[in-house]
Design goal:
By secondary structure, the chain is mostly beta strands. It has three helices and 14 strands.
Length: 264
């Protein structure tokens, strides 16, 4: 039974070590991790590093540097650019190469900013999304084991608006039974925008993303998130998926992903 993405192990110097569970397995290849669990784990490291700073995350960028194995991984976080009002923090995940030496497999950079009071001028680009009855087939990987077993997908009927709407909710914790923040829960599902807004059939094409960039004008709340996503495919096998992000209270930000498209 999958009950979390990672199990905490003993530290190794500056690195915190985690064992990856079956819940991290990608729907593209069960030997590698889906992008959302690593993003969420490094987001957790950055939130822990930022605790007490008075800053909050405004942007998260996940760069996948290589195949992330379903194996023990090491994570470290540091302040790249300190500041009282604006700070750049980074987290890196490493895993062992076949044969021994560790290599970086993913990195998250985060801009953190000092909150103030702008409630009187706050604007909403889109009205809140209301969840309706889901259609029977939520995605093109029905039956896939691993990550897709750990998230509920409720795809909404097409409305003719720009983007396909899917409501997602994590079913497991991030690390053991440790508390999971709303930002970490969003990170646990946001990399799924590529699948939610797929413009191609995965039986005919692979379209794996190299990154996920999330901009948040408001921090998320709760456990349920909607992605209104759409993929665009260029003529030279490179694509982009963009998404509007919502929680139950309304619009919270956007995401974008770069895609490498390959025919099967």
């Amino acid at each position: 039974m999958i009950d979390c993405y990672y199990r905490r192990l003993d530290a190794d110097g500056d690195f915190v070590v985690f064992d990856s569970t079956d819940g991290t397995r990608s729907n593209w290849d069960p030997e590698i991790q889906h992008g959302s669990p690593p993003l969420a784990l490094m987001t957790k490291s950055i939130e822990e590093l930022a605790a007490g700073s008075g800053l909050r995350v405004g942007r998260l960028t996940l760069d996948i540097l290589g195949a992330i194995p379903v194996a023990p991984v090491k994570v470290r976080a540091w302040v790249e650019r300190p500041g009282r009002r604006i700070s750049l923090m980074m987290a890196e995940m490493s895993a062992a190469r076949p044969g021994g030496a560790d290599r970086p497999v993913a990195r998250v950079t985060a801009w953190l900013l000092a909150p103030g009071d702008t409630a009187d001028v706050a604007t909403e680009r889109y009205p809140p999304l209301l969840e309706g009855e889901a259609i029977p087939v939520p995605h093109s990987w029905v039956g896939a084991k691993g990550y897709l077993e750990t998230v509920t997908w409720r795809r909404q009927p097409e409305t003719g608006e720009t983007g396909d709407v899917v409501w997602l909710s994590p079913l497991v914790s991030l690390v053991d039974s440790e508390p999971t923040t709303a930002l970490q829960r969003l990170a646990m599902v946001v990399d799924s925008a590529n699948g939610a807004g797929a413009a191609l059939e995965p039986e005919q094409f692979m379209f794996m993303n190299t990154d996920t960039v999330v901009h948040l004008h408001r921090l998320p709340v709760g456990e349920d998130f909607a992605l209104r996503a759409r993929g665009s495919i260029g003529p030279d096998a490179i694509g982009v998926t963009t998404a509007d992000l919502f929680d139950r209270q309304g619009f919270i930000g956007t995401s974008a992903q770069t895609l490498l498209v390959q025919r099967r």
